[in-house]
Amino acid sequence: MAPLFLFLAILAWAAFSFSESTLQHRFSATPHLVGTLIMLCCLPSYLVGSFVYLFRETQRMELALRDLAPPEAANQLTQSANRLSPLSIFVIILATFYGVMQNQSVLQGMMAGEPFNLLDVGVLVGNCVVWAAIGLVVSWRVPVSLAVQKYGAALTIDLYQIEKVKPITNLATKDVLIVAGAMSFMPLQSLDAEFRWVNYEAGLLVGIPTAVVLLVIPMLGVRAGIKQRKRDRIAEINQQIESTNGTDVVRLETLLSHVERIKGMSNWPIDLGIATKILGYSVIAPLAWVGAALVENLVDQIAQ
């Protein structure tokens, strides 16, 4: 959100402009420092904006499928989206603590009386804000995804119009793209064109599993509904087969072919090839940059 970004940007500019030269944080060059500050300003703002956006998209999804879901399922989804679970507070605190631990050596130096300045404090606090925002979004979104799973399981599914449940697939895709967008901020920490694995490790270890979970979990309920509807429909057709005269070959072949068609229908409301591409495109940008940086470092080492 723009106000949050503006507030953080002003604080970062003040810390950068009025700090002395001595830094506990070991930045290799000014671009490294500036890129880190930009990331610390942009990422929390992006995550807060994503929170609001996903909340609205969840409401739109529920509204689009209201005719297919029982009222109690819709109410449960709304309640889940409108509140944070008690566990969320613990996750946010844990994520903030992890942000502190990422700067453990700096914090220990400050507590030991070594010289530091306002910029050190700003980077330390900024990293905690980033991870608190990550904890907020993840701890809210995972329970909502579980609620969407239950909501999808309660839908009245028409095997011949599976596209009607596409809003759930679209919502899961948006979750993944939001995670991908968050990971795309990581290369800002390397504006000095130097690869440091520590700048990517936590983001990739959290981002990739989160993207997979937020893509798969919401669709599990619809998948269960599709499988149950297929079993029911096949049972109905089998009853028709049993009641058909054995000499009516045309009807029998038609019914048997229809059974095979239903068995061949995907249990997922999304093509698995498309799902793989979504995950691939989501992580390909940061991973490609990391790979290029690794190759560059290797070439530099060989050249020396």
Runs in which pLDDT lies below 50 for 5 or more consecutive residues are: none
Arithmetic mean pLDDT: 85
Per the principal axes of the C-alpha atoms, what is the gross shape?
elongated
How many DSSP-defined strands?
Answer: 0
Radius of gyration over alpha carbons?
26 Å
Q: Report on the biggest sheet.
A: none
Number of helices, where a helix is a run of at least 4 consecutive DSSP H or I residues: 10
Distance between the termini: 46 Å
Tell me roughly what share of residues is in helical segments. over 70%
SSE pattern: HHHHHHHHHH
Strand content: under 5%
What structural class do helix, strand and pairing data support?
mainly alpha
Report what the structure shows.
This protein is mostly helical and 304 residues long. The chain has helices spanning 2-18, 30-64, 71-81, 86-101, 104-111, 118-153, 166-183, 198-242, 249-264, 272-303. Helix 2 (30-64) packs parallel to helix 6 (118-153) and helix 7 packs antiparallel against helix 8.
How would you concisely characterize the structure shown here?
The protein has 304 residues and is mainly α. The protein contains ten helices and no strands.
Keywords:
single chain; 304 residues; mainly alpha
What is the fold's blueprint, element by element?
Elements: H1 2-18, H2 30-64, H3 71-81, H4 86-101, H5 104-111, H6 118-153, H7 166-183, H8 198-242, H9 249-264, H10 272-303
Helix pairs in contact: 1-2, 1-6, 2-3, 2-6, 2-7, 3-6, 4-6, 6-8, 7-8, 7-10, 8-9, 8-10
